[in-house]
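Hello Y.,

Per our agreement to keep a running log of every chain we model this quarter, I'm adding this entry. I've kept the format consistent with earlier entries: sequence first, then predicted structure.
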Amino acid sequence: MSGGKSKVTVHALLCWVFVMFFSVLQFDLQIVQSFFTTELQKDYGLSSVGLASLSSAYFYIYILMQIPVGIMLAKYRIKYILPIAAITAGLGCVIFALSKSIWIAYLGRYLMGGGSAFAYVAMLMVIRVMLPRRYFIIFVGIGELISLAGAGLLENVFSILIFNFGWRYTMHLTGIILLFLAIIFYGLFYRYKSASENESELVKEGTFIKLKQVITNKKVLLACLYTFGMYSIVSGYASLWAVPSLKASYSFIMHAQNPDLVSANIVQMILIGIGVGSPILSWLVGRYISLTRCMYICAIIAFVLMIFLVLITVHTEFYLIIAFFAIGLICSSYVLAFPLAEQSAKPGNEAIALAVVNLFVAGGNIVLQPILGLFIDWHHEAYSSASILPINHDYNFALWVIPVMFLVSIFAIRKYISIDKRLEA
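Predicted structure for the entry above:
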């Protein structure tokens, strides 16, 4: 891997921490609307599919920006890019909060997605270029732990703010925080040059040639497919449908004083599980197990766990928390697709390869959220139309999409291993 410094500096750690905080905020912007789905449906007259479409608007621009993000972060000064990104996301929050029509709400979500598109790849680039290269996989795992644990804790803050002050106030406050973050970024990265200016070995190939090399690399694409499937527990379920499905499925949640807060506490266990699992798996890889074998085993375990979660009814909050934590812990193996793609890419193409993997991570939100919404609406109309809103059986039917996605991950990593064996033969 090209780039990287020989030692860890305080300045590099500060840059990493604040970009990681941006990553925490962007992750919560992905799923925050799950705490006020009922309000959105009432305010804008949305069906389940319409709600999923509004939620996915964030990801349309987020996904379209991923490859340009990788190119821009490699070529241009980050001191300009990150402040502009944070300002864009902040303005999106404010516009979303002020929106009275569905089209203005869409505009707000688009701006949020466009600004947030830089956060995670920027964190990976800071690790890759500003920290020692030998610590790449470790810092990625630790970064995922802090980012997702922070996002899980911030979910509680969002839930409390929304419950007490409303969703519009909460989005206003988030926008102001992002505007302050833009100022911090400019100060931190004021003297920092672009990745290409800092690297001693720069491959002199054109941008489009590099992009073609990445998207035609079968091993990189298989890494992308693996992470798409494993991250579906978040992109397809936790980021939109988990909170309403839990409220519809469990009476002890529905009868709680604040059902949204109780649901958020349970859903955040998926994120905390991912956060805890990421550094553990990063530590295990290379010491006790190979990268691809670890990913393969995790995909199989995730498939089995998800089948049990769909089929078996859990009657207490404690066991539900354990189940959600366990599935998050195993699904944290999606993070390993980043170093897998990075080591599979041609030298000089790492930044674009990382951006393409992140594109597939985010892509699940656009693809899977509407699919689950479609299944929920279809099952509701066919079998439970007497109820105004979807009930537990409607959500359980749609949830079968997730184990299917884990099967996709199993196929992808098996194919990657077989290609490796053919190359070694």
